[in-house]
Design goal:
- The chain contains 18 helices and no strands.
């Protein structure tokens, strides 16, 4: 469909449509994990600089979302859950999304570099490149490992927040990255279990499409088990502590039990009950990540009173 789609549909874009291009729900995860990375990093930055850094990291995440929607417009028109997005719905043209994404990419990287340091600015630029070019343009349409490798893009924000304070990376920031990186496959594959038809119709080689739901269930359990050591290692690092360790033990136990329940289910029973277990696992995966990073915030908040950390 051409850039005349908005005219063809007789609809005008509103402010909310341009906000939707930035994928605000995804951006909220970017903002939160980047903020945690910034807060727990050693050193100090002025609160205004910290706010500015998070703002431009958020804009960089939004830029990635707009460029993703521009490139994936053909897929979004086919998938039921994305047909209401601004481009397939005809409220925003593909050219407008491309222009907005490119403008915000340049602005966010330059301003983050000026506000903090050029390592952080360059890191944000690399993250946008990775998400748009490596994941969206290449991996997503070419391999069932798309979400495994491409998940790195969503795992970089806490490292960027850390870099905004320190000007570099560390073992702690790498562990935050690995927590999100290893969490991403079971999170998205659980979604794909009950959204398989959408991916199949769009020609996206998700694991559930190329290898079937049975294989996806086994992969979810395998990656959930592989994930478990990383939050535990993070809890034992210099930014962790008893709160993080307790949260990690409990959350990992619930997550693993959920994955075991999923792998034991057959497709007939899962379909019969509307994939309740799979949907519950997907929802808990969001809480799993949020609570781990919240625990790190608690440790940082307790530290001035001599209560947080080891």
């Amino acid at each position: 469909m051409s850039d005349l789609s908005a005219i063809d549909h007789g609809q005008e874009a509103g402010f909310g449509d341009y906000v939707q291009l930035l994928k605000p729900r995804v951006m909220s995860l970017v903002v939160f994990t980047a903020m945690v990375g910034l807060i727990v990093a050693p050193g100090h930055v002025h609160p205004f600089v910290a706010f500015t850094a998070i703002l431009f990291i958020a804009l960089g995440g939004g830029a990635s979302g707009a460029l993703n929607m521009w490139y994936d417009a053909d897929i979004d028109r086919v998938m039921r859950r994305t047909q209401g997005r601004p481009i397939p719905a005809g409220r925003v043209t593909e050219g407008e999304a491309l222009g907005l994404g490119l403008a915000l990419s340049v602005l966010s990287c330059l301003m983050l570099g000026l506000a903090t340091n050029w390592f952080a600015g360059a890191f944000l630029g690399f993250t946008i490149f990775f998400y748009v070019v490596i994941y969206t343009m290449w991996l997503k349409r070419s391999t069932p490992q798309n979400i495994v490798i491409g998940g790195a893009a969503g795992a970089f924000p806490p490292m960027i927040g850390w870099a905004a304070v320190t000007g570099g990376a560390s073992v702690e920031s790498l562990l935050m990255f690995l927590l999100i990186f290893m969490w991403t496959p079971p999170h998205f594959w659980s979604l794909a279990l009950f959204m398989k038809d959408d991916y199949s119709r769009a020609g996206v080689p998700m694991l559930t499409v190329t290898h079937g739901r049975r294989a996806a269930r086994r992969h979810i359990l395998a990656y959930t088990l592989l994930l478990a050591p990383f939050p535990l290692a993070l809890a034992l690092s210099s930014i962790g502590g008893p709160v993080t360790l307790a949260a990690s033990v409990v959350l990992n136990l619930i997550f693993i039990l959920g994955a075991v329940r999923i792998v034991r289910r057959d497709e007939a029973s899962a379909e019969a009950d509307g994939y309740k277990a799979e949907k519950a696992f997907f929802r808990f995966s969001l809480a799993y990540l949020f609570l781990h990073f919240s625990a790190l915030l608690v440790e940082a908040g307790l530290a001035p009173f001599g209560l947080g950390g080891w």
